[in-house]
Amino acid sequence: MKENDAFIEYRPGESLPLSQIPRMHYYDFYNQASLEIDRQAQVVHYFPLEDGGKKLLLLVLRKKSLHHKLLIGAAYAVNDAISFTVRSKMFHLFEREIMEELNLRLHGHPWPKPLRKEIQNYKLFTLQGSEVHEVGVGPVHAGVIEPGHFRFSAVGEEVKFLEIQLGYQHRGIEKLLPTLSLARMPTLIEGVAGDSAVSLALLFANVIEGLTLGGGEGQGLPKSTADSILRTLALELERSCNHIGDLGALSGDVAFLPAAAYFGRMRGEVLNLLLQLSGNRFGKNLIRPFSYRIPLTKERAVTIIKKIDEVKREVEEVGALLFSTPSVLARFEHIGVLAHTTALKLGVVGVAARASNIDYDVRRDYPYEYYHDINVPVRSLAAGDVLSRARIRYQESIDALIISKNLLNHWISLDERATRAVAVPTLSASSLVISLCEAWRGEMSLAAVTDSKGAIVKIKIKDPSFHNWAGLAYAMRGGEISDFPLCNKSFNLSYCGVDL
Amino acid sequence: MYQILWNRFKQGKRTHAYPKAPLELPEMYRGLPLIQGSDKGEEAATHCPQQAIFSSSIDLGKCIFCGECEQRSNSEFVRFSNCFEMSTNTREELIVSEYRSIDAKSCLGRKSIRELFGRSFQLRQVSAGGCNACESDINVLNTPFFDLARFGVQIVASPRHADGLMITGPVTLNMKHALLKTYNATPAPKLVIAVGSCAIAGGPFYDSPEVIGGVDELLPVDLFIPGCPPHPMTILSAIVNYLSLHH
What we know:
CATH class of the largest domain in chain B: Alpha Beta
Largest interface: A-B, 64 and 68 residues
Oligomer: heterodimer
Structural class of chain A: alpha+beta
Helix content of chain B: 25-40%
CATH superfamily of the largest domain in chain A: Cytochrome-c3 Hydrogenase, chain B
Strand content of chain B: 5-15%
Number of helices of chain B: 8
CATH class of the largest domain in chain A: Mainly Alpha
Number of strands of chain A: 16
Strand content of chain A: 15-25%
Radius of gyration of chain A: 22 Å
Largest sheet of chain B: 5 strands, parallel
Strand order of the largest sheet of chain B: 7-6-8-9-10
Distance between the termini of chain B: 37 Å
Largest sheet of chain A: 5 strands, mixed
CATH topology of the largest domain in chain A: Cytochrome-c3 Hydrogenase, chain B
Distance between the termini of chain A: 39 Å
């Protein structure tokens, strides 16, 4: 039985004719969506769309009680309509994006500041008080990092408020995408965040495959198990190398140099495995719609398995060292705590959510590619501090190596290992597809919309960092400025993934 | 303490002897492309997502090394070798053809520059947009395998301490101001190194109105390092060659 007629249930990856999306007046929509939010629904997407000359706001929600399905609802945008952020903080960035893109106001939005445009003219938030002092960092940082501005308002060493201003990397990706050929789109999408290139390319491939298969034109090729396994393998290697790298960076931030050096090198070993798969250390140019571009040979698969065993053993050895060193534990424990209730309210996803006891992993809850057949261990811890995030990264990096090895062994045992041929797909017209994946930072999603001729008119990309930056700002409150690098690294969010 | 020592012993020495000993990258790695002939050049050009191929030449400044032209031409137009040494002093030299390839060994800085910065060269990295892959592969130059510091080359925290800038990204409009300020804060004489296809020609973001599409539109560039991202060894070898640090 449907709980709510205002929303349609939707399985990620399937093509949905735009005409089937229920459209409402904004105020009805607001009330219905609020009901869902009270029932613990979380935002996946909320973005504007051209609809017969009018602007439609498309809302995508997920809910624990809905197995493998999302809720989609929509309303026409009106100026000065009441803001969702008033009720629920997880809408904060989504609504800022909508206000910026449509150039409208949302009534009651607590912080309608620029997200990507005209950030230079924006005056940062100021905390009043005779004891308050400010520390500004960025956009050019002391390390080799992406640009972003952090403004701490502190009393003594205690951070009262942290403002994070991004937008410096705004490359106009979403505006550029619909003007490109289908062949160029994936290279641009992989450029959204290079450290998540495999996940991004997979989402794009899944969306195009969904749009094609839904067309009923017989254009779609049957899914090949071999390719699905290899795609999943690339995703797990991407997860593993990034988590290992983060463990190294965390060690470096507390000046535990042995682990920093070892993990740093081991991350390189896993990047080299991605290189063995794709010819690129970040797995770029590997996954394309209906294709897994670079065939794997049995010999290379065997070499990769051997290397995985070696790296796994080393990660375990250095992990044991890291998590048993008292000076490290003293710096990791109780630092940058993100409470469970705060994480839920902000809609935090991925490692950061699981470290705050939120049991959510797209691989298990909305399985895609070969995850239908894998029992993914979902790790969660309760403390919400730097130590919890580090431990979860550690466990997930080991899990990812184990899953990778199993996948390779399974692939070798297959009778049919050949990769698919590339087809030029015809896309179904006036449709929407949303695909989800658990990138190494958390839930990542991509939505594509076609016009009446089957041409892509909109691609909306959401990096997990879009949900999580607020989590970092909250975790810093009451902490010391000197803990910021450590805290920042434990979340390790993407700047470019948000700036688009 | 014993565990630290035990781990140290187990890890051993991991730094590669390059350039004293040659380093072979895996065969899968797509490095310097070698143009085989002009027959299939035109057809390969139609498949290039970067519009980097014209009259059977490849502009490595635009190229993202995806290998589409190699696959589509059955290696008849081009074959990507596993040679990682590729860097040039000028933008034009990045265009390779059947008759002209890149000789990274001859990509040298002026004698006065080499004498001034050889053995002690401090760089400030500026991320001017991009996708963070170049930044990641610059960061790993500090890991034990590459160990850039053994050549006396360091990445420093302030432009005031730097002898040059290592710039990544297509230079977004939102980063233009910060990039110019950082450049002006660096004392002369200073070098500018453009790392990655974004910093050279906008990379995958070319034609976007939100990016300038190349550092050399704004600043004089001394060293071009192609790739998407360049392999860490490409970056390391470029600096080693430019300052003649192999002795």
